[in-house]
Design goal:
single chain, 51 residues, mainly alpha, 0% strand, elongated, transmembrane, mitochondrion, transmembrane helix, ATP synthase F0 subunit 8, membrane
Length: 51
């Protein structure tokens, strides 16, 4: 396997960190907006997911 450049590694880490952060924000947003149980919340998030 070829070694990754430090810049590419930093960009990858920032991207994964940002997506995890956005996911947590969405979880808390939906938890506060709707009083749903976990499965319905996950279904709602997955159907409204936009990349």
């Amino acid at each position: 396997m070829p070694q990754m450049k430090p810049l590419m590694w930093m960009l990858l880490m920032m991207y994964t960190g940002a997506s995890i952060f956005l996911y947590m924000i969405m979880i808390f947003y939906f938890k506060n907006k709707y009083n749903l149980n976990y499965n319905e919340k996950m279904k709602l998030i997955l159907t409204n997911w936009k990349w």
